[in-house]
Amino acid sequence: MNEVADEFKKLFQMINDLSMDPVYVTPQHITDHFEKVGMIQTTDGSVREFHHSLDKMLTLMGGKLSKPGSLNEAEFVRFWFNCHRFYNKFDLKNTGNITKDEFYESMVGSAPDKDTQEKVDEIFNIVDRNDDGKIDFIEFFCRLPQILNMK
């Protein structure tokens, strides 16, 4: 975890350079940085979706944050580490993309309340925005609140 945590600490510092607050970053700072480095684009709607998802996830964490709606370095590292760890549970081949087969394989171990293949198809229809048959981390994160609410 130390190597991954160090990468998230570096990311926090880069984003914090955009902030007027030396301790906290907001969803807007994070979104602005991801857009600046080309991970999300205004043209495909991912900026809006990313920001909405980030707001939603931080709202869910509200009581666990030292400053609601913002993250300090430790919270930022923990938040992104946990998001990536959750993503990697589905990225079984560690390729940086989740295929339908990987998603299906990871779901079979859980006790689905409806047909697993149907559920995987439903998730892919919602999450795979560019219809390339794979889910990258940004697509996954933009739909994370919906994924967590699926029954």
From TrEMBL:
Residues 115-150 form the EF-hand domain. SUPFAM superfamilies: EF-hand. InterPro entries: EF-hand-dom_pair, EF_Hand_1_Ca_BS, EF_hand_dom. Keywords: Calcium. One of its GO terms (molecular function) is calcium ion binding. This is EF-hand domain-containing protein. It comes from Oikopleura dioica (Tunicate). The lineage of its organism: Eukaryota, Metazoa, Chordata, Tunicata, Appendicularia.
